[in-house]
Amino acid sequence: MENVKLLLERITSRVNANLKEFDFDTRQFVDNTIEFAKLARFYCFYGITSHHPIFFHFKNSSMAGSYFLGKANVKQSCIYKSDVRGDELKRKGDIMVAANPLPLVDDEIIMVTGSLLYKTLVHSNSHNPETPEEFTIRNTIASHYANIHGATMEGCFLGPFATADLMNLHSCILGAFSYIQAGEFYHRKIDPGVIWVENDDFKFKYQHEKEVLDKYIGVNENHQPRGLIYEFVNEKEEDYERLFEVVEIEPVKAPQSSAVNRYAVVKPKTEIGENVLISQRAYLKNARMGNGSNAQENTFIINSQLEGMNVTAHGGKIINAFVGQKTFVGFNSFLYGKEKARLTIGKGCIVAPHTIIDIDAPLTIQDNHLVWGYISSEADLATHTIAIEELEGIHGSQKIGNMSFSGSGKAFVEAFANRIEHILEANGAYFDYDSQELSGHAQEDQQIAFNTLQPYRSGENAGIYPSIRIKP
Amino acid sequence: MENVKLLLERITSRVNANLKEFDFDTRQFVDNTIEFAKLARFYCFYGITSHHPIFFHFKNSSMAGSYFLGKANVKQSCIYKSDVRGDELKRKGDIMVAANPLPLVDDEIIMVTGSLLYKTLVHSNSHNPETPEEFTIRNTIASHYANIHGATMEGCFLGPFATADLMNLHSCILGAFSYIQAGEFYHRKIDPGVIWVENDDFKFKYQHEKEVLDKYIGVNENHQPRGLIYEFVNEKEEDYERLFEVVEIEPVKAPQSSAVNRYAVVKPKTEIGENVLISQRAYLKNARMGNGSNAQENTFIINSQLEGMNVTAHGGKIINAFVGQKTFVGFNSFLYGKEKARLTIGKGCIVAPHTIIDIDAPLTIQDNHLVWGYISSEADLATHTIAIEELEGIHGSQKIGNMSFSGSGKAFVEAFANRIEHILEANGAYFDYDSQELSGHAQEDQQIAFNTLQPYRSGENAGIYPSIRIKP
Asked: What distance in Å separates the CA atoms of residue A346 and residue B56, rounded to the nearest whole number?
């Protein structure tokens, strides 16, 4: 066990060195988070398919419950129940950005070095044109259920349920439940609960109030998460246990065009339509998944219906709700309807990332609206929504409630629409079964075999993995 | 799937090239043995402990249900449910033979190349001083439950339930249920059912009659096994299934000084004493395992008691029997007592490898006797046993029934006694819990973690594994 402790100490000191200017010590987080016995007992998985390039290299690392696909290289890191994916890594010859049409000289590879990722998802659609062949996370600690989507991440600390989306961070701290998608940040500290989407054409910003964060998702003095959202996730943890105990599992009933990952929890009365993707660690209970809809990693869909072509982004939670055609539910959103206070969201809506809707009376969001922030009543809704058509007309600055927007509304709407289209296409929502064309994850991720990897059980290396390399 | 077929075709043609002089075509065996769907569905295991050097390299190979420990390198091979061990491989600096006291320049490694091992056990106590750092199996096909114990094996075909013990074979054919331990063989064909133990000091030889082989273990026109022993083993196959389905399994109750491998089947009313080793794919049901006793791979101990310090060598089957203190039951022996016709074997006995005892009336073998061959009654026993003391007195030639012995009886008895001592020591039968001294497999094999490796599921590589390398 000594070597795991040494490993964590090394990671901690490297991250601290990067965050020195903020006088921020990650040691308290690490010391209070890691259960060493579990590191020696649990195991991780590498997915083998004929659709993804295979290259996996582990060294001086500890992993537990984690899930890898595609090319990955993990060194001096501890990855605990993180769903590091690899199915959107670029391939040799791909063009990354139209502005710089040079093809990749090699397949892109996930590189994790000197980092601790704790129950953190890492996606794999990279947006750093500096190193198109490498998807890098270095000297970084990401705490409970932080989302990292396709970005260079160096010397950072991400608080619980924080999301760094389509961007690169260097020596940054992201507060709990903050969402940022703003290109590239150097040496910045982002407050908890900030939702910030910005590019050359527009800027959208909102910050959850302290009381809301205290109730739903905050941290205690040891940087451990607390609050309603964390409790909601935490109490469902044991439902995943059986999935990790068995090597093979009876497949969930689904059409041939749909994929239900074998590490998803699918409870009774769930119905799966055509071209549906249910990712690992998704949780479905009495869920009706319409054609082309998806439930990404760490999502919860309970007593709810998704009409069709719906994206439920990583960590989205939909409870007692109806979600209309092609409505997007953003990352880590917590849509908490009640049995007698159902939430109805019309078609073509955008639920901004990190939105909290917690209602005690029925609530309806009209078709083609954007919602954001914290909504607990009709009254809240009034200051947390805008018709997408109206938004498209905005030029310049506008404030609605605590949300400030500036720039081109049209560009904002287009950016979201493009993102949603990209996700639907990548997930195989438009797959045509007869011609077998337009396939995506829902079709390509069906036949995954898993290499189940365990660490040393005893001795000074307990919890550490031997060096493992898997190639075609 | 095409590439698995190509792999098998390549193995077949290489073995055939080596066996050309015998006009022997292994193609019929291979074509009728391999169930391709299982190769793509099953998986194999690599054991991780802090007691064994770790190096594992797979390439262009297919494996299913197989179990590796220690250093191994597998290329262009198909290994199906074989228990390739590695816990007796020599280490860098070890001295192999007193006659040539040069230390090994590197840890010994199992090298399997261009071979098909079908439900075959491979042990790891090598006896080839030519290549002390390599334990080699090359261009060889071993069929159902053949035992290969620590030997160089090149261009061979081993029939079902055949054993090549402590020796090297080059371009040889071993008939079904034959047991040979005779140094080194080149270009020889051994008949079915031959039991042959020979060294510079003595020669022991027996051959089972054709009728016995036809009843208990023969092959059909496709070289597939048939007969009572094969049926006995085959009908218990499904009891192993649950063991392979789960990643972790509730440990069997056993003293701290004993090891029950998690891939052993242990059925009710079994009792495990101190310093006991139960190996992978051992099968115990209502078995009382006395202190220091062991059940090696592919053994079956049913409704039986082993008094203590007993070796049940690979593939030994003990049913409705009492086995006295320090009695050795040799490889693939079939001791088939009945509920109302129990077999009693005294203490200090040697049951020669490949002995068949099948009785319908109770039978007792006196203390300190050697038995061999086929025994179905008191009358058979008379011509298939000798007191060890009497055997020790033999010089020159002697025939008892169909058994012929020549040379020094004393040397024969000593050789067996040394072998039994080596096995008991290696297995940890003499372990002292207080001082933690004299430990062996029973103690060192307790904390094994397993990497569970799966092949490609679909496409032309279905059934083939990616290249995998595991190092410390």
From this structure: 56
